[in-house]
Specification:
alpha+beta; Serine Threonine Protein Phosphatase 5, Tetratricopeptide repeat; Dna Ligase, domain 1; 4 domains; 5-stranded mixed beta sheet; 28 helices; globular
Amino acid sequence: MNTAGVDVDKLLEQALAAFRDGRLGEAELLLRAVLRQHPQTPRAHGLLARICMRRRQFAEAADHCRAAISMAPGVLAFRDVLARALAGGEQAEAALEELRAVCAAAPGDAGAAYGLGMLLLAMERNDEAADALARARDLAPDAAVIRHRTAGACLLAGRHAECLELAEGLIAAGENTPMLHDMAGRCHLELGDPRAAIRDYQRAIALDDGVKDFHVALSAACYMAGQRDDAERITKRFLKRFPSLTMTAKKPEASVLVLSSIGAQCYTRPVSAPHMHGLGNFIGQIPAERFTFHYFQIETPDPLEAARRIRPVDLVYNNIATAETAERYGYGPLIREIVDALGVHVVNAPEPTALTTREANAERIPAALDMRFPKTRRYELGRADLAAVAGAIREDFRFPVILRGPDSHSDQKMPLARDVEELAVALAEMSRRRNPDLYAIEYLGEEYEPGVFRKIRCALIDGKFYPSHVSFSDHWNVHRRPADLNFLKTRADLMDAEKLFVEHPERYIGAENIARLEALNHFLELDFVGVDFNVARDGQIVLFEANGAMRVLPTLMVEKFPYLLEPRHRMRVACEEMMLRKIGK
């Protein structure tokens, strides 16, 4: 590439265009040409940092950011990228101490305080981030960018009154943007003023009515204000306009209609558009590279007609894989009607999916297969007498007993009642949340070692077993959350155990248990099943979950556990090949 004599600004424009078009190699060549001619060009370093971030080259990105900041300390965007680079790599804690020292040595440096706040924000230490950004705001009160970031950090930290004051101050100063009205609306909802939130979202929609999230939040605000008819009307209008969210592949091998549902949450809670259309489950983890995905919300008015308008469709993926949800709203027959009308095959057919409620699994699986599933009973809560519900649970179960909502999945707060008093408290809390019913579940947990609990996850795809990961925690309710992962990171022996599972599962859980899990896949008659389980001390499999919705591709902090990358790739390819086989390709 001959760039001799070409104007630097022209080269930077060409590099930015290439970057935006995804031509990272070309953009990098242009930027390095700029730096050869003019080494003191902060924009070139800034864009090279963004290229490195795309490639997950965090250390190189941080180096370019530092170079850009040294040349242009007042450009806050460079500090934003630096924070993400430090948080993404292994340098975050060391950089945090370094930035704290810089701020202590130069307490009047707004840029340093801003950089500290952005690093804390990238590390998800939101409360500390809000404090640091507030100091930066006080040092540079005219910097709108800092006020914006401070408001956002306060929102993430749950400091809604502070966020609202900042957002309304920016609006009053003339920054009449939809994002700020959205921020104000979210704060008003959290502060218990849904009528003010209605005004906020009406203003946001007036400025940009194409943002799906604003319509969803307006519906939720109306619902919370007691205007339920308005909430349903707004949601139906929104879904009629946006029945699906399409993720388009550049060169798709096929198109897949993904049928999803979030039930009544579509008008009772302010959720993002991707969540509204069901991108939270396993299929949402498959990138739109080999397939174009149409994520279709089944609550849309006249879903059959809306589905017919989406073309082409080569396969339907039943993402309403929580059998309890399909049962509650009667979606099974509707899914079958859509599949038959389109004349295509379906992944996870609705009929076998309907048999995978937790209660049904607890009855069917141990009766047919050599594995345990905790005893599970469903109880109506609604307007029932809580003492009567507690009495029924005590008759059916021994303590401790787990309580959870029938539709819940990643429930980090589900109670474990160890006695009568804890059961009464848990039932009162679930009633306060207006759960219409609940599951009581036998507690079959056991310590992996003193003070450590384990949960193993796998995927069953097309009848074959695929290891996903092993989670360890110092709490019985094991989730692969940052606290659990930080705990795991301190234990090389536990990381070795997880590595053994994903690389040689037959050595970790035994070939006979892999065969049992594959038999479970055939028994359930589903194309994809996610399974959470443990292997008890007696060698028997204890199942915790088995459903077609589970997110099995590890994503959180996966760069710190590189041995997970290959099994993640294998599961993705297996899913893609399964879908192509269903299509007949």
